[in-house]
Amino acid sequence: MKTPQQEHDRAVARAPARGLSAFIATAAGAAIANNYTLQPALPEIAREFHTPLATTGLVAGSMQIGYMLGILLLVPVGDKVSPSRLVFLQFAVLTVALGLAALAPSLYALALVGCVIGAMATNAVHLATVAFRAAAPDERGKAVGTVGTGMSAGILLSRFVGGALSERAGWRAMLVVSAVIALVLAVLTYRLLPVDQTRSKERYRELLGSLPALVRRYPLLREGMFVGACWFFVFSMLWITLVVAVAGPPLDLNAAQAGMFGFAGALGLFATRAAGRLADRRGARPVIAGGFLLVIAGVAIILLASSSIPGIAVGVVLFDIGCFSAQVANQTRLLAIDAASRSRIYSIYMLAYYAAGAVGSIVGPVILERHGWSAVCKLAVVIAVVGLGVTLMSNLTARKARSKDGIPELSESVGSDGKGL
């Protein structure tokens, strides 16, 4: 039993770690926001480059593809090189890429640089690893959750901030502001982040070569990849088309007004901690299933209230609560699979996740232009129903297996040793 003085000393020692966790969360949110800040400005970009609106999906899609490539090629390096140093290097390259994007002479040049921006934004994933390793053993889950909240806030608020800056100063000026922020974060992360001296003995080629074996080895990883891909396809498709749809009749909103829906969606972040606690008590699958139900309900409300700003806002809040809750529960169980391969498992999951997001970002504007807003919403519901069905079937199969083997109900959460239960 600890004395009051020991408890006090422990609390004092943890105070800097909490401050570091908050800084890391802020940096992660700012990093990943670069994948989304241009979305409210897509109509403006289409007008400037005299291209069809559907073609601008290449810009958003290229950033998701770049992020996907970064997840595949850069994130596993965190097992061999200190993630803190990778964060600094990627922020530095991100600064240059954002500056070049602000000078892009054509849509295709912007899309090409966008791919680099997306790849460098994966430093948000490295930051989650830094937070996990820097936190006390009994606060690691909380630290990762804090970073996850920062990333989610960055994704949502990026549309509001990007829309407001683009409306007032133009999308090129908005990219210059983003470049300045990236430069400041490069300096701060270099000075503040702890350097982890742990190194994997595997070569880079061996790290990448082990990824398919991990997918084959863990059925839970395959399930997590599929359901995560389902809701992020829907998330990316709906958000990129929503800001375009509300720019036309009957609402005719400008970029700043459309970005306000991202601010409303940020309310969903308040559900993430509750979702994590519920996943600890009840297991991940019930939380994921509930998340899909909220996604379906949110999309239905958005469709039915497509001419009402308050109605769309309510639908967006439910939609984002569903997505964020499912994401927290899914990440928790996947990070528990194998502590020795945590970075690579996370890389595999996020690769599937953002591949689906890239497809959603590209397909969404095409469906919107050819078939209308209702077709986008109907496809979103179909994909969410598929993800819900897989989750429910997997949960039923797992319950039957535990019952047959006489194993009591256990959650899919993480123990202190990092191994799944």
UniProtKB/TrEMBL annotation:
Q: A GO molecular function for this record?
A: transmembrane transporter activity
Q: Which PROSITE patterns match?
A: MFS (PS50850)
Instruction: Tell me where on the tree of life, at the top rank, the source sits.
Output: Bacteria
Q: Does the keyword Transmembrane helix apply?
A: yes
Q: Which InterPro entries match?
A: MFS (IPR011701), MFS_dom (IPR020846), MFS_trans_sf (IPR036259)
Query: Keywords, A to Z?
Result: Membrane, Transmembrane, Transmembrane helix
Spell out where the chain crosses the membrane.
12-33, 53-74, 86-104, 110-132, 144-165, 171-193, 226-249, 255-275, 287-305, 311-329, 350-367, 373-394
Which N-terminal stretch is annotated as signal sequence? none
**Residues covered by the Major facilitator superfamily (MFS) profile domain:** 14-402
Question: Would the keyword Transmembrane be found if you checked this record's keyword annotation?
Answer: yes
This chain belongs to the protein called: MFS transporter
Taxonomic lineage per UniProt?
Bacteria, Pseudomonadati, Pseudomonadota, Betaproteobacteria, Burkholderiales
